[in-house]
Amino acid sequence: MHLQFLYVMMRMISPIIFIFSLLLFSCHAAVQDFCVADLTAPETTAGYACKKAANVTVDDFVFSGLGVAGNTTGTYNKAAVTPAFAAQFPGVNGLGFSFVRLDMEPGGVVPIHTHPGASEAILVLKGKTTAGFVSSANTVYYKTLKKGDVMIFPQGLLHFQVNAGSTPVQVFATFSSANPGVQILDFSLFSNDFPSELVAATSFLDIPQIKKLKAFFGGTG
To answer: Signal peptide: which range, if any (predicted)?
Structure first.
């Protein structure tokens, strides 16, 4: 009898707790209109802490950098990326999106990389780019895009771009996070102290080629 009473009480209380938790969540969401990044505080896995409202200005919600072409001179991949993440554009902190401008010269390339924290959508503004991604089933989806074309790269999947024409390429991208993160495959293998023998064992590349790439990317080991 006692157990049956407890069971009935739990059946009654559980919906109340659930509704109360929803109310708490809704109240929390309405406490503040935004969370402009406080760049003087360290970044955490949840993003930046909020700047005090008294210190927020309209400039926190405006970013003009995407109107200026990136400097591709002297870059190893003939490309330049101009980010508008929370670190550069404090107003997007906590809002779940951010932006990037990509400029590629003829022969330019964005090496295979991944964004662990976000999906990406690109819009070609100028030129032609061959863009694609690799699924977790190792299927490659790629296509040559022209002005006005849009393509998406699902979160966490390896993807790339290559200038497919003889003229400069300009691409605008948006991410589903204010801090999407990035891991470039070439840098992960060749720009650090990852021992060449281990790189060879795990990638099946020849050690002389690995050392050549490490020298190019500034790695050791």
So the answer is: 1-29
- Over the stretch 17-61, which tens digit does the pLDDT of each residue have? 444 444 444 444 446 899 999 999 998 888 899 999 999 999 999
pLDDT per position as a tens digit, 141-181: 999 999 999 999 999 999 999 999 999 999 999 999 999 99
**Is 28 annotated among the ligand-binding residues?**
no
Q: Apex CA 85: angle with CA 81 and CA 86, to 5°? A: 155
Sketch out the chain's domains with CATH numbers.
72-181 (2.60.120.10), 186-217 (no CATH)
- Closest C-alpha to 171, from 105, 131, 129, 125: 125
**Token pair belonging to 205:** 């590349």
Which of 172-207 are b and which e, b meaning 16 or more Cβ less than 10 Å from the residue's Cβ? bbbbbbbbbebebebeebbbeebebeebbeeeeeee
pTM: 0.82
User: Which phi and psi (to 5°) does residue 156 adopt?
Assistant: 80, -5
Residue 115 annotated as lining a ligand binding site: yes
The residues facing 33 across adjacent strands are: none
User: Token pair 């409202």 is at which residue?
Assistant: 53
